[in-house]
Amino acid sequence: MKNIFILAALALLAVSCGTQKTPAVAATPAEPAKIVVLTPELEAGRDLYENNCAKCHKLKDPKKYTKEEWGPILVRMGKKAKLDETQMASITNYIDSQL
């Protein structure tokens, strides 16, 4: 009787080790990329952003920050770059369009 229990335990151990369950991974669809068609105004903002901001540092991906985070950054950097209000509005519109 003792041998039957030992054999049953060994069989159970062999079966449990031999079958490994893999967790089911739910496939989450990737969010489609937002395609923004740049108007001439937005292109001008992009050009200002690329030409003025890149003079001093690497350009940041607009999506790296939220709209609320970009506000003070643009104000501070606009003063350093000596940009006027029209130029700042153009850059701000471009950044906002990319978010």
Automatic annotation (TrEMBL):
Residues 1-26 form the signal peptide. This is Cytochrome c. The keyword Secreted does not apply. Residues 40-99 form the Cytochrome c domain. It comes from Flavobacterium soyae. It comes from the Bacteria. The keyword Plastid does not apply. Keywords: Heme, Iron, Metal-binding, Signal.
